[in-house]
Design brief:
This protein has ten helices and 14 strands. With 472 residues, the chain is an alpha+beta fold.
Length: 472
């Protein structure tokens, strides 16, 4: 069975909600109307009884309504109030007097019924000839032998007609109102969902070659604009990811082509020309260096791929950055000295961070390796570790060739080289800093780069400081 569309479901939902609300409010209003009308009629009946009590007189063993015949207004009021009027003698239950309208209705009571009504509730309802009446029953004491049951009635037909009219109106108008509301809801839902359809049409027009396009926004700041904004933000991330993939493909193609071309060229030259054993030895050494370069690049690629896939695990431990930095600087001292570089270390004692020592070691090694590569002979490199502002601060500063301002925001991207021509002079594939940033962020830290062409570069790593480590 095909599922209803969103527009149909919205219309059906609001129609059902409206039906339920009309039903609930209809029942409540009907009940309230009945109570109010019943109360009003009962109050009117009480007023009639009170009014008639002023004109009732007991004389000669009977009860009569005494009215001034010369006062027509008074006579009319008494006649109106006593339109449905009966008087019975107690205890024998004999009829003393009744109004003409009661006689026409044929309301007769047996003595047993009269005596029962004398002890009955104040009000009783009676159904006569399809007419509904309410009577007020009261006992008036007469002479020693007799007392009287006085009954004053009022028709309830007006209240019954009002209730029936309201019920008929609700039963007719409620379905009509629900139908009209459903039609209006159908049209309104179409207008409300029109921006969604426009967004869907615009989204269908975006493919991998048009990721720079964005979904239109109305500027109303409503939920549709929020959806468009979220989708546009997703497009930005997707565009960046696709751009990185394209750059990755182009960069790795370039990085692989260069050593492969060198290897092929050297092999072809070796085949075409005769060489001594020493020449072949130098050729093999050169090729081994290219193989090492390819191996390092592939290993870095595999590490980055595994890192981004979340497949790399590490242990959480207290790492003494001060000791680690000093130890690594001592290991790289011969490498720096070979290039006539001065490697200085300034580390505060016992600066601890929590993380994996092996990965943090890779961070320091990569930063120092970059500094050694890009610092000319006779330059200076400084490695410092300190606790600052609640963080462990690790800083590598060199006096190298520097990074242009336009290239500085991209130095942590994979395969990015600030000066492509220098890749022929300086080994590396542009993966080290990308790996460094990933490691630092995985340790809940951050890394910044500051540089000026010809003046050197400074990389600063901020890691959460572990204040509990090293305490006894």
């Amino acid at each position: 069975m095909r599922r209803l569309g969103l527009r149909a479901r919205l219309t059906l939902f609001y129609s059902l909600m409206l039906t339920a609300m009309l039903a609930v409010f209809g029942v409540l209003f009907y009940h309230s109307l009945s109570l109010i009308m019943d109360h009003n009629l009962t109050q009117e009946l009480r007023q009639r009884v009170t009014f008639l009590n002023n004109y009732q007189r007991v004389a000669n063993g009977t009860l009569q309504l005494v009215v001034d015949p010369n006062n027509t207004a008074e006579a009319y009021l008494v006649h109106s109030a006593a339109r449905y009027y009966q008087v019975f003698r107690l205890p024998d239950g004999g009829l003393v007097v009744q109004s003409q309208d009661v006689s026409l209705l044929g309301l007769t009571l047996t003595p047993e019924q009269v005596r029962a009504l004398a002890g009955a509730p104040e009000f009783t309802d009676v159904q006569l000839n399809q007419e509904h009446f309410r009577f007020h029953n009261s006992v008036l004491a007469g002479d020693i032998a007799n007392s009287f049951l006085i009954r004053v009635g009022i028709p309830l037909s007006s209240a019954d007609d009002a209730r029936r009219g309201f019920l008929h109106s609700v039963l007719f108008l409620a379905p009509l109102g629900v139908l009209v509301s459903a039609l209006l809801g159908w049209q309104m839902s179409r207008r409300a969902l029109r921006p969604m359809k426009e967004l869907a049409a615009a989204a269908r027009g975006i493919d991998v070659d048009k990721l720079q396009q964005r979904l239109p926004r109305s500027g109303a700041g409503d939920e549709v604009d929020e959806l468009a904004q979220s989708f546009n933000e997703t497009l930005v991330r997707l565009e960046n990811s696709v751009g990185e993939m394209r750059q990755f493909t182009a960069s790795i193609s370039h990085e692989l082509r260069t050593p492969l071309t060198i290897l092929r060229g050297e092999a072809e030259v070796a085949l075409l020309e005769g060489h001594s054993v020493e020449d072949y030895r130098r050729l093999l050494v050169s090729q081994l260096e290219e193989f090492d370069s390819l191996t390092r690049m592939i290993n870095d690629l595999l590490i980055l791929a595994s890192a981004e896939a979340g497949e790399i695990r590490w242990s959480e431990q207290n790492v003494d950055l001060s000791h680690l930095a000093v130890s690594l600087a001592e290991q790289l001292e011969p490498v720096a000295a070979a290039k006539n570089l001065r490697l200085e270390t300034a580390a505060e004692p016992s600066v601890y961070a929590r993380g994996d020592a092996a990965w943090l070691e890779r961070v320091i090694l990569n930063l120092l390796d970059n500094a050694i590569k890009f610092t000319p002979n006779g330059g200076r490199i400084r490695l410092s570790v300190a606790a600052e502002n609640g963080c462990a601060k690790l800083q590598v500063t060199d006096e190298g060739i520097g990074i242009p301002a336009e290239a500085l925001p991209h130095v942590f991207e994979r395969f990015y080289r600030a000066e492509p021509s220098r890749s022929k002079r300086i080994p590396g594939a542009g993966l080290g800093l990308a790996l460094v940033r990933w490691i630092v962020e995985k340790h809940h830290g951050r890394i910044t780069a500051e540089s000026a062409p010809g003046q050197g570069t400074r990389f600063t790593v901020w890691l959460p400081l572990d204040r509990t480590a090293g305490k006894v």
